[in-house]
Amino acid sequence: MKIAVCIKQVPGTTEVQINPETGTLMREGVEGIINPFDLYALEEGIRLKEKYGGTVTVLSMGPPQVESAIREAISYGADEGVMISDRSFAGSDTLATAGTLAAALRILGPFDVILMGRQAIDGDTGQVGPETAEHLGIPHVTEVKMIEGVEGNRITLRRMLEHGYLRLKAPLPILLTVVKEINTPRPASFKGKLRARQVPVKILSGKDLDLAPKIVGLSGSPTRVIRVFTPPKPTGGKVFTGEPKEAVQSLLRALKEAGIPMNCKNGS
Amino acid sequence: MKDLVKGMDGIKVIIETCTGCGLCLRACPYQAIELREKKAWITDNCTLCGACVEACPWKAIVIAGWKPIPKEDLSQYRGICVMVEHRFGELSPIVPEIIGAALALKQQFKGDPRTVSALLIGSGVRALSEELFAYGVDEVWLLDKPGIDPFAEDILADLAARAIRDRKPEIVLGGGTVMGRSLLPRMAAKLRTGLTADCTELSIDPETGLLRQTRPAFGGNIMATILCESSRPQMATVRHKVMKPAPKEIGRTGQVVELDYKVPKSDFEILEFVEDTSQKLDLTEADFIVSGGRGLGDPKNFSYIEELARTIGGTVGASRAAVDAGWIPYPHQVGQTGKTVNPKIYIACGISGAVQHQVGMKGSDVIIAINKDPNAPIFSIAHYGIVGDLFQVIPELIRQLRSKEQG
User: Fold this and answer.
1) Whether residues B122 and B181 fall in one domain
2) Least packed by Cβ within 10 Å: which of A197, B30, B140, B175?
């Protein structure tokens, strides 16, 4: 089974704080990390390989420093890493990103299963997966929480939906985006860390992908960000201290005065 | 010009205007700007997000090189189309919200009225047209044929994209639901057009008539306004529980436009939908949520949270700390790697409020924090708070709520 996992390097957020004065992210010393959801995609790819044999290829599109994310992915157990990097890709929106990823997947593939995280924690769109699948002309399933198994050319999946989940069978090749519930990613092994330092990371540039300039980067992106701003900060909260009885009384009074409905629905 | 311009393709720093003040360095979410010889220098990390352009008081950073590609005559596209999501013969709760957003946009095309239509695809769904008219749509584009499973997204995307190609609306709006956020990207890629995910604000630019799409990114810490200028339709999904739902008026009518396409065979074999009993009421749709975190100290103390939730008719949520400790299953997790919720009231109990938690619940109408640490970050975003021991405060809150009801 040939497995691809697409990862994105995002600004690390574990130490990010919101500046209480400006309401903006304080990012001093924040390193790039692998998008957290993508780690679950990677782990699932490695598990598929362990169960059904094959290889796991990690791809990442971005500026040259994504190499560190790719090497980290190799340390967890990916077989090879490919970096899709070219200045002409800068400014890609989800459609242009998907077109570029699809071109790379076509060159490196064909893959049986392509895995991604449900969304990246910086852009929060979740659109690149379905759009990439469409560019490749293969089906996709989002929010996968379990791969029950693969039989021949069919994969059985559980997909999270509002109020429950859907069990379905889908054909291979397929593109899946996964949720956190799907597994618990393993830590990097010592052997993996060694490998990560040694194996070469392949680079695919714009020329290698042979895409028309008008479909990549800024000019290939139908959407354009015209304004970025920080949302208004909630105005001063009322905090009550002291004895629980009085504090709760004050809270309920304040809610009532503000016309906020919080009532007892189940009195017994 | 060549000496005036530095940096990578697309984004340029006008060296003569740049004062080296450094405001752009702080605004950049990607650490892609350095000061070199006291001037801003854009590095390869740049994604052309435009945060620096906005931040620069001297207008010394410009993004150039973006040129619209005239694909076809855009004026052929007219009207606003709502993608109808339905399951088991009922409209999804987000549908009135999408229609509400569409009707609000319609109002903004002053003197040049647009039609609001609803694209309804399925088997035996004709009856839902009446309900859509009651919510105020002008037209229902109906494809009611056997063999269309509401979960077979591949054929839904095919048929919907075909209908959009034929009917040519200038705007297509869908729900920011699991289905909507899977189906619309697939359609957008088929139509080779732009799509903006999970919008919280939509408006029509009065001068250009373009759809201004505003959405949170970076987990809600940054808002971005996005345009889709050169391709049609302009597509967006709207975040659940943000747009005002359209009021329902029984008896309103409209025109049904019958679509007649051959239904392709789905690649998927839908086995079953399993209702999640641990999630009786979905968090993302809950009006009241009571969440517990590390401060509970022990899994059995979730009974405090459950009791309060039961008292106010709410749903139980949790912080990542509580989920990772195995106190409560993952579907209850609120935050960056869990669910994004926007209830009327969110009560955070024993949750310190790390930014990763905040991004999942900041959109709540009212946030109430109960925490013994007055310096917990949760208080910085809470509208109301009680500093105290939650094991005393929660029972007291339940007691007073109940006695209020009786008295």
Assistant:
1) yes
2) A197
Among residues B39, B63, B87, the one where a domain terminates is: B63
Distance from CA of B100 to the nearest CA of A (A): 21
Q: Tell me the per-residue pLDDT of A149-191, one tens digit each, with 9 for 90 and over.
A: 999 999 999 999 988 899 999 999 999 999 988 999 999 999 9
Domain count, chain B: 3
Q: CA B91, B93, B98, B99: dihedral to nearest 10 degrees?
A: 60
Chain A interface disruption, residue of B202, B222, B279, B345, most A CBs within 10 A: B222
> What's the full length of chain B, in residues?
407
What pLDDT is recorded for position B355? 80
Residue B58, domain extent: 5-63
Asked if the model's pLDDT at residue B295 lies above 80, the reply is yes
Is the domain of B78 the same as that of B209?
Answer: yes
For residue B5, pLDDT over 90 is answered with: no
CA distance A32 to A13: 9
- Cross-strand bridge partners of residue A115: A5, A176
- For the stretch A34-57, pLDDT in tens is 999 999 999 999 999 999 999 999
Whether residues B55 and B84 share a domain: the answer is: no
B356 contacts on A by Cβ (under 8 Å): 13-14
Answer yes or no: is pLDDT of A15 > 60: no
Any A CB within 8 A of B226 CB:
yes
Residue numbers of A between 93 and 132 with CB closer than 8 Å to B: 93-95, 98, 121-131
Q: Which of A123, A224, A251 sits opposite B227 (nearest CB)?
A: A224
The three-class DSSP label of residue B22 is coil
Which CATH number belongs to the domain containing residue B241 in this structure? Answer: 3.40.50.620
State how beta strands A9-11 and A32-34 pair.
antiparallel
CA B183 to chain centre: 14
Q: What's the burial of A186, exposed, middle or buried (CB within 10 Å: 0-12/13-18/19+)?
A: middle
The reply to whether residue A11 touches residue B31, judged by beta carbons under 8 angstroms, is yes
CA distance B172 to A227: 22
CATH architecture for residues A2-220 = 3-Layer(aba) Sandwich (3.40)
My answer on whether B44 and B94 are in the same domain is no
Q: What is the pLDDT of residues A104-123, one digit of tens each?
A: 999 998 999 999 999 998 88
Q: Nearest chain B residue to A227 by CA: give it.
A: B225
Q: What is the pTM of this model?
A: 0.81
Q: Say yes or no: B401 contacts chain A, CB-CB below 8 A.
A: yes
Based on the fold, state whether residues B101 and B212 are members of the same structural domain.
Answer: yes
> In terms of Cα–Cα distance, which of B356, B66, B74 is closest to A12?
B356
Same domain, B250 and B287: no
Please state the rounded mean pLDDT for residues B314-336. Answer: 90
Q: How many CB pairs under 8 A join A and B?
A: 324
Write the residue in A87, A123, A252 that is nearest to B400 by C-beta.
A252
Please indicate if any CB of chain A lies within 8 Å of the CB of B276. Answer: yes
**Does B257 lie at the interface with A, CB-CB under 8 angstroms?**
no
User: Comparing C-alpha atoms, which of A120, A93, A109 is closest to residue A10?
Assistant: A120
Q: Is A184 on the interface with B (CB under 8 A)?
A: no
User: Collapsing DSSP states into helix, strand and coil, what is residue B140?
Assistant: strand
Residues in chain A: 268
Q: What is the pLDDT of residue B356?
A: 81
Residue B263 placed within a domain: no
In a domain, B272, yes or no: no
Inside any domain, residue B270: no
* B281 confidence band (pLDDT: 50, 70, 90): low
Residue ranges of the domains in chain A? 2-220, 237-268
Highest mean pLDDT among A200-214, B240-254, B257-271: B257-271
Based on the fold, state whether residues B231 and B297 are members of the same structural domain.
no
